[in-house]
Amino acid sequence: xxxxxKRVQGAYACVAEIAGYGVLAFRDPLxxxxxxxxVAESQQGTExxxxxxxxxxxxxxFRLVRDIAPGEAVFIDLEGNxxxxxxAPGASLNPCVFEYVYFARPDSVIDGVxxxxxxxxxxxxxxxxxxxxxxxxxxxxxxxxxxxxxxxALQLANRLNLDYREGFxxxxxxxxxxxxxxxxxxRKSVRQKLNAMSIEFRGKNVLLVDDSIVRGTTSHEIVQMxxxxxANKIYFASAAPPVRYPNVYGIDMPTRAELIASGRSDDExxxxxxxxxxVYQDIESMQQSIRDLGPHLARFExxxxxxxxxxxxxxxxxxxxxxxxxxxxxxxxEEPVRKAQMNLQFNSARD
Length: 351
Known about the structure:
- The chain is α/β, with parallel strands linked by helices.
- It has helices spanning 2-7, 54-59, 97-103, 115-133, 150-160, 183-193, 198-201, 217-228, 266-273, 283-291, 303-306, 316-329, 335-350; strands at 13-18, 22-27, 36-42, 45-51, 63-67, 72-77, 82-86, 109-110, 113-114, 141-144, 163-164, 168-170, 194-196, 205-210, 233-238, 277-280.
- Strands 11-10-14-15-16 form a 5-stranded parallel beta sheet, with helices on both faces. A 4-stranded antiparallel beta sheet has the order 1-2-6-7, with no helix packed on it.
- The chain is 36% helix and 21% strand.
- The longest helix is centred in the middle third of the chain and has 19 residues, at 115-133.
């Protein structure tokens, strides 16, 4: 494991069964991806379970013991003995902030911080930003984009003393749209995934709250659905800052041209999604919302928001190569996106 950490740079959390020996689990030296383990006592002795999220342990009757430390390896042999060893000198904890924003289940605890509580805190900080940039008296109702934005939207509504309503009903048989291939597939899936209840929208000024805005396809369709349902004005608030850079640490945000915030101002994004106003969370406020609950978390991996790739080996040339590879392989991406990527590459080369 010590040799592997020297050779591999990036984000990883792995669990492997070694036939005839036992189970090995390890986490990258920067602690970007989450990994934890728990125990369950039985007549046969102590059982161990390793998972990326604590909720998986609880669902199977295991008690969370702790997170696996950055650069640490744990090994459970066939006799049930537990071994742990730090395998990367100078390891540090830099959890992926997007886990708290969107990816993780709200009932999970990652690196000692409740994901649900973190999203509530994000709602508090976002409420202050909305208070500064919008007149709260012009907002009739706050609505979340289900499901991950519910805690933030609820806390925002409470802080601003506004009514909270569920205006969108979710079809639980449609997956997460922002990772689906192709604009037309994502656009169609949004309509299949959500249904707007006109009784909640008709004649109202609505503040829609989402956890983040990635490609913008979902946000644009949601705004259109709200207008079709009879909303008077539509304000949009994101509990996360603008996603301006690709994530190369395990999240499918591969190209800058696919990100609506890449190279656009907030007002340009607002016009693109069709909202009457747009409010983004500040990067520092997003990070502070997690630090408030876990003061031990000094740094985060937040490259998709700030463009700072903490492994130190991600260059503009590397990102260009990823984009060229995707252009040559991903046939599901539609022509407008391909043209945008080509123009981006041409401009980058010219600059």
